[in-house]
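seq:
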Amino acid sequence: MEKAKFIWMNGDLVPWDEANVHVLTHTLHYGVGAFEGIRCYKCEDGRSAVFRLREHLMRLWQSCRILGIDCPYDVDPMLDICLETIRANELEECYIRPLVYVAAGQMGLGATSENPIHLSVAVWPWGAYLGDDGLANGIRVCTSTYQRYHVNTFMTKAKACGHYVNSIMASVEAQKAGYQEALLLDVDGYAAEGCGENLFIVRDGKVKTPPIATVLEGITRNSAIDILGDQGVKVVEERFTRDEVYIADEAFFTGTAAEVTPVASLDDRVIGAGKPGPVTKRLQEEYFAIIRGKRPVYSEWLTYL
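struct:
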């Protein structure tokens, strides 16, 4: 991981190696905190822009509400903080990680209403999450032995720190088995999502993605649905089984980190031709044109530095 110069912490830009918290930080022990993953890209005109920054920060604020913690900043101040942090680090492209966490104070499960709530924003250079080759040629995926949680086990609309134990267990399991990512099923056995990505399949000209009841309402997912719609491709939100993924013509993941990553195989069943299909490639091309500022019609999705 490549370090940047500063991390924003509670009003101050702190040198990277000095941006520390107390060992009794409540979120460290219990996982009650919310975060976002956001990307800033260098555009074709030489400026840098953050993709869908306001939407990400609105989801962060909403995640805090779901978790019952008071976000210390509204969306507009957090937006300014993110831009300030990128500028201070003099980065043209970066990954952005705002984190709202319950600080040290009282311990115990009910202390979230008693302890201070803090915000930090870190930025750093980060390339393709699943690799450049994965973006170009697709990745190998396996079905995890871990299930995505039930909607009343965890709140699926919150991008909460503790929720990601489920994802980490699935991701580590997949990588140890020689795969690049895992697909998690929901508690009823239907395809849900990747460890940190939303899933789409293409079959007989129809694009499907699981409904948001049991998966995170991904911002890149929503962007992909809009882009495909503008390309004349309707996306249906409905449940489907993993064997329907086996016989799909195409499959791909979306996410801030993963961007638009084709899935070449699932459980060693080659999907389609085993390489990005036409729908995936058109979506990829348009998505990467949008984030580079080449499509004025989508300019509202970009916040320029």
